[in-house]
Design a protein that fits this description.
With 143 residues, this protein is α+β, with helices and mostly antiparallel strands. Helix content is 39%, strand content 29%. It has helices at residues 4-16, 18-21, 31-37, 40-43, 115-142; strands at residues 26-28, 58-61, 66-69, 73-82, 85-95, 100-109. A 6-stranded mixed β-sheet has the order 1-6-5-4-3-2, sandwiched between helices. Strand 5 and strand 6 (100-109) form a beta hairpin. The longest helix has 28 residues, at 115-142. The mean pLDDT is 88.
């Protein structure tokens, strides 16, 4: 598992050149994105499914951000003010043999910028990355 110094160095590297490091761009969470991803219906769901938590994380809090990490992922949740509007950047990196690969960056603002929504959207992306990795692994085994 990566240590806190390695995690912080990766964060600084990613944030130092976010447009280049976020190879798929920065996803801005809005009504259209939520509808297209099928998340709109589940955001209002008040039920908590204990099985829905796919990952358990260690947490490091600082004044600048919250860092979640485990053997598979590192997630940085970074609140910011942009043009007098509260916004949250979420960076999701895959821990690939002690090397972090930035997989997804998304932002929330306005009505979607609440801890509850951020965590539900994060859960969606965690599942997406896990499914993609499982597909890649199965394809590699077939070769």
């Amino acid at each position: 598992m990566l240590n806190s110094v390695e995690i912080e160095e990766a964060y600084k590297r990613f944030m130092g050149d976010l447009p280049k490091c976020a190879h798929d761009g920065i996803i801005h969470v809005d009504l259209r994105f939520l509808q297209e991803s099928g998340l709109l219906a589940t955001l209002q769901d008040d039920q908590v499914d204990r099985e829905d938590l796919t990952q358990y994380f260690h947490v490091i809090e600082s004044a600048e951000k919250v860092t979640l990490f485990n053997d598979q992922f590192v997630v940085w949740i970074v609140p910011r003010m942009e043009q007098d509007m509260p916004m949250t950047y979420i960076l999701l990196a895959l821990n690939n043999h002690s090397k972090l690969n930035l997989e997804i960056v998304f932002t929330t603002c306005g009505v979607y910028n609440t801890p509850r929504y951020v965590l539900k959207i994060l859960q969606h992306f965690l599942l997406e990355v896990l499914e993609t990795e499982a597909t890649i692994t199965s394809m590699e085994k077939c070769e």
